């Protein structure tokens, strides 16, 4: 079955089953009728039609692995301060599958505390392997508080800026001038009391070569299905499978937004460009080039 036909069938299922607000206070067990195996998308990635363009206006993407992908997925929370995010594993598996097929190296972490989250990204930003990749992708999935703040396993909070600051050009020389994409899936409702007031390092140095993709507009809730995971991740993976082998990344994101809007429970995704000034092609290697993990 083709990626497109499989997606059409999946869309029918999602539109006839319940989607859950991530911010909703619910700890119910996922309903029967589907298994986690049926929720995995099993997309077939295609190699690039031709190697991506070169030139001063293009971010090079020829290394093998193509890039490094960091996935932080907070599913459960200490002392049940927040409801368990059923369906979270499905998002991880789908992302791992498409990126590994495209020739990217993937590192996944579940249920980290605030301290462990900061340590993880700090260590990753210093990893010498970043010198040998062309790009960085960071995926963060959890409950959210405020437009740029998410909750860790110990019910503490971390801001997206704290994560991004590890990868500033001055602090992460291995990624200097390389594309860095941050994908955030968490509710973005306002909460002024706990939102950090200052980001000192961000004040001293501007973000460059960064792109932030939020699954919902600031101030709005995002959604998650207890079996199928988040509509935004599924739509994003589908867009990669359909278009990554011949379209620029900005065009892939445009297709992702179109697919996402068709899904039940979809919100309005937001894209924030932080001096992401060049064209970028994912340049996938294809399914047979899955790197060892």
UniProtKB/TrEMBL annotation:
<keyword id="KW-0378">Hydrolase</keyword>
<comment type="similarity">
    <text>Belongs to the peptidase C14A family.</text>
</comment>
<dbReference type="GO" id="GO:0006915">
    <property type="term" value="P:apoptotic process"/>
</dbReference>
<keyword id="KW-0645">Protease</keyword>
<feature type="domain" description="Caspase family p10">
    <location>
        <begin position="200"/>
        <end position="284"/>
    </location>
</feature>
<feature type="domain" description="Caspase family p20">
    <location>
        <begin position="65"/>
        <end position="191"/>
    </location>
</feature>
<dbReference type="InterPro" id="IPR015917">
    <property type="entry name" value="Pept_C14A"/>
</dbReference>
<dbReference type="InterPro" id="IPR011600">
    <property type="entry name" value="Pept_C14_caspase"/>
</dbReference>
<dbReference type="InterPro" id="IPR002138">
    <property type="entry name" value="Pept_C14_p10"/>
</dbReference>
<keyword id="KW-0053">Apoptosis</keyword>
<dbReference type="InterPro" id="IPR029030">
    <property type="entry name" value="Caspase-like_dom_sf"/>
</dbReference>
<dbReference type="InterPro" id="IPR001309">
    <property type="entry name" value="Pept_C14_p20"/>
</dbReference>
<dbReference type="GO" id="GO:0006508">
    <property type="term" value="P:proteolysis"/>
</dbReference>
<dbReference type="Pfam" id="PF00656">
    <property type="entry name" value="Peptidase_C14"/>
</dbReference>
<dbReference type="InterPro" id="IPR002398">
    <property type="entry name" value="Pept_C14"/>
</dbReference>
<protein>
    <submittedName>
        <fullName>Caspase-3</fullName>
    </submittedName>
</protein>
<dbReference type="GO" id="GO:0004197">
    <property type="term" value="F:cysteine-type endopeptidase activity"/>
</dbReference>
């Amino acid at each position: 079955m083709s990626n497109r036909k499989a997606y059409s069938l999946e869309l029918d299922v999602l539109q006839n089953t319940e989607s859950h607000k991530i911010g909703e206070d619910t700890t119910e067990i996922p309903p029967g009728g589907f298994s986690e195996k049926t929720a995995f998308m099993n997309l077939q990635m295609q190699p690039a039609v031709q190697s991506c363009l070169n030139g001063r206006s293009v971010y090079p993407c020829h290394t093998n692995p193509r890039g490094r992908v960091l996935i932080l997925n907070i599913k459960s929370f200490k002392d049940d301060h927040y409801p368990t995010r059923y369906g979270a594993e499905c998002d991880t598996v789908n992302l791992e599958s498409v990126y590994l097929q495209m020739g990217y190296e993937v590192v996944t972490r579940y249920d980290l505390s605030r301290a462990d989250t900061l340590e993880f990204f700090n260590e990753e930003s210093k990893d010498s392997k970043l010198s040998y990749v062309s790009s960085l992708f960071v995926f963060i999935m959890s409950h959210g508080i405020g437009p740029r703040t998410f909750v860790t396993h110990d019910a503490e909070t971390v801001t997206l800026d704290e994560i991004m600051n590890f990868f500033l050009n001055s602090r992460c020389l291995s990624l200097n001038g390389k594309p860095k994409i941050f994908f955030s899936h968490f509710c973005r409702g306002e909460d002024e009391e706990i939102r950090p007031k200052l980001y000192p390092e961000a004040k001293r140095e501007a973000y460059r070569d960064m792109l932030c993709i939020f699954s919902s507009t600031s101030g709005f809730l995002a959604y998650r299905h207890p079996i199928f995971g988040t509509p935004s991740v599924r739509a994003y993976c589908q867009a990669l499978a359909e278009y990554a082998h011949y379209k620029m990344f900005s065009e892939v994101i445009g297709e992702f937004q179109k697919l996402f809007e068709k899904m039940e429970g979809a919100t309005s995704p937001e894209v924030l460009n932080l001096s992401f000034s060049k064209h970028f092609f994912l340049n996938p290697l294809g399914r047979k080039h899955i790197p060892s993990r």
